[in-house]
Amino acid sequence: MERFALFILIALGETILRTGATTSQLHLDLPRFAAFMLAFLGTAALWWLYFDGFRRIARQRLELASNPVQLARDAYIYLHVVLVAGVILSAVGDKYVIAHPTAVLAGAEAAVIAAGPALYLLGQVLVRLRLTGWVYWERLAGAVACVLVGVIGTVVPGLALASLLVVVLVVVIATELVSETRRGGVPSSFEQPEASSRYPRLRRRVKATARGGAWCPAGTSARPNAKLRSSRFLIRSLGVRSQKSGLQTAATG
Predict the structure, then answer these.
(1) Would 29 be classed as within a structural domain?
(2) Coil vs helix vs strand at 157
(3) Of 22, 18, 213, which is closest to residue 101 (Cα–Cα)?
(4) CA dihedral sign of residues 126, 131, 134, 136
(5) Could you tell me which residues are beta bridge partners of residue 157?
(6) pTM of the prediction?
């Protein structure tokens, strides 16, 4: 997990370096400087969306899963390719915006600019869906919003397109922070493994503990407790009979 997180961090760092290299080769005016700052803010938003609690929750899910190897393979080897592709497309899109901040870009260029953050958000939705079984609606809505922004990107300047995409990312982050604040520190359903359909044993254990009962593993029931009580009663009965037999023997003697 740490290696994949480091890989994402390196990809985001390369995006910033590429953005700076592109800006340094062009004449720096106010629109281009604004495009550079928007590129930096967009990359920072992508960083926040990945490193804000995601690794902790993912590690917890893998530790509780019955098939951690398969989950790790799907989430980190396969689906992380989508995240890296989103970062790469974002870097290419930033280059287009910095090169032509005030021009209306072609359809293909506008599609690349919007596809970066959209693919990144969609990749995170897929990763968390695979790990938890829950749909991350805020980020899915953000991915859809990025696609809609890309549709109108063919009629607005590149700087406006980049601004709208950064606004979408900031709104997604703000929505999650507001939701966390309203919960008052109480973990969400996404952060509670016992609430997920992928952890039925843990869910049964938590429910049984909440009712004050004993938790039995899968394939068993509460009947062993009844058998245990019957065995104890039988032992006590045999002890009483043994004492009676001893008294009768002593009286006869």
Answers:
(1) yes
(2) strand
(3) 22
(4) negative
(5) 104
(6) 0.72
Q: Tell me, yes or no, whether 148 lies in a domain.
A: yes
Residue 205 lies in a domain: no
Question: In the prediction, which pLDDT does 43 show?
Answer: 94
| Residue 151 domain-assigned (yes or no) | yes
Burial class (CB in 10 A: 0-12, 13-18, 19+), 58: buried
Q: Is 104 in a helix, a strand, or coil?
A: strand
Question: Which tokens in the block code for residue 251?
Answer: 């009286």
Task: Enumerate the H helices of the chain as residue ranges.
Answer: 2-24, 30-51, 54-64, 68-72, 80-99, 107-132, 137-152, 158-183, 200-210, 223-252
Helix, strand or coil for residue 220? Answer: coil
Q: Is 172 exposed, middle or buried (0-12, 13-18, 19+ CB in 10 A)?
A: buried
Which amino acid belongs to residue 85? A
CB of 119 closer than 8 Å to CB of 151:
no
- Interval 87-105: pLDDT, tens: 999 999 999 999 999 998 8
Q: Would you state the structure tokens that stand for residue 45, as one six-digit string?
A: 């938003």
- Closest by alpha carbon to 70, among 143, 5, 130, 1? 130
Q: Please count the structural domains in the chain.
A: 1
Q: Which domain holds residue 193?
A: 2-198
pLDDT digits (tens, 9 = 90+) for 172-206: 999 988 888 887 655 555 555 544 444 454 444 44
Average pLDDT for 28-47: 93
Do residues 162 and 35 touch, judged by C-beta distance below 8 A?
yes
